[in-house]
Write a structure and sequence with these properties.
This protein is α/β, with parallel strands linked by helices. The longest helix has 14 residues. Strands 1, 2, 3, 4, 5, 6, 7, 9, 10, 14 and 17 form an eleven-stranded mixed sheet that branches. A six-stranded antiparallel sheet has the order 13-12-11-8-15-16, with no helix packed on it. It is elongated, with a radius of gyration of 20 Å. One of its GO terms (biological process) is NAD+ metabolic process. Its main location: cytoplasm. Its EC number is 2.7.1.23.
């Protein structure tokens, strides 16, 4: 069954050499099809733009461009076709020469969507909510600047789990399990699971291990007072917010999901095997 697409946002990281040409190529093709095309190219950190009426999006760049697109389009239910303009990432499974085939495959109903958990992060200070963030990969509480130990209390669904003395804590989605969290010793999850990972970074106590919890759980981290360093909260490694002693930070699954157009050429596990050099043979 053909899907009706009226307005497409084309998000392009212009630091990638091929991005500008490909953005124009896609826009020209869409307009020939009678589809409204909105090109948005950026250098460095992109500004938020209007998404009114958008019902489909292209992300041209790497995984970082997809992370930005997912946050920009959060709660809108807009599918994202992620085109890779470098080495294949865990989120960008589609090459620059495949975009048209994949787009037509999706529009004609032949290709589906990968529905990914988004993370919702709420910061409370003095009993008041002061900030709310969404992220596709992860949220990290850590020291600002050189590595220093921070002290944090963790609760899960109002149950006290203990305290961390560590370089920080990562709360990751299944999609983010292959990012910072795996480098910090966390597990790799199927990207469409309904779960969250709570992973301390270099904890002082070796018994503090990564936890995989239900997607229905709510984690609460209390930033203890009298820290020896400034503390920050980072979202997807792209948004940063300073925290203070006494702040409460809540992490839960968002009500919305990131919708990524599937590739029929390769899938998450093929990319995983390639990037981690899993041969599956005697020299694996």
């Amino acid at each position: 069954m053909e899907r009706l697409i009226r307005k497409v946002l084309i998000i392009a990281n212009l630091q990638k050499p091929a991005a500008a040409v490909l953005m124009d190529e896609i826009a020209f093709f869409l307009r020939e099809q009678g589809i409204d095309a909105i090109p948005f190219g950026f250098f460095g950190k992109p500004e938020d733009i209007s998404t009114e009426g958008v019902d489909f999006a292209f992300s041209l760049g790497g995984d970082g461009t997809v992370l930005y697109a997912a946050r920009l389009l959060d709660n809108l239910g807009v599918p994202i076709l992620a085109v890779n303009l470098g080495n294949f990432g865990f989120l960008t499974e589609i090459s620059s020469c495949e975009w048209k085939e994949v787009f037509e495959g999706y529009r004609q109903g032949g290709l589906g969507l990968s529905r990914r958990v988004m993370l919702k992060v709420i910061v409370e200070r003095g009993g008041k909510r002061i900030m709310t963030f969404s992220g596709l990969n992860d949220a990290v509480i850590s020291a600002n600047g050189m590595s220093k130990v921070v002290e944090l209390d963790l609760r899960l669904n109002h149950n006290e789990l203990g305290s961390y003395r560590a370089d920080g804590v990562i709360v990751a989605t299944p999609t983010g399990s292959t990012a910072y969290s795996v480098a910090a010793g966390g597990p790799i999850l199927d990207p469409e699971m309904e779960a969250l990972i709570i992973n301390p970074i270099c904890p002082f106590t070796l018994s503090n291990r990564p936890l995989v919890v239900s997607g229905n759980d709510v984690a609460q981290i209390n930033v203890k007072k009298d820290q020896r360093t400034d503390i920050i909260l980072s979202i997807d490694g792209q948004e940063v917010f300073p925290l203070q002693g006494g702040d409460l930070v809540f992490f839960e699954k968002s009500h919305s999901k990131a919708l990524l157009v599937r590739s029929d050429r390769r899938n998450f596990f093929e990319v995983l095997r390639s990037k981690l050099n899993w041969s599956g043979g005697s020299d694996a």
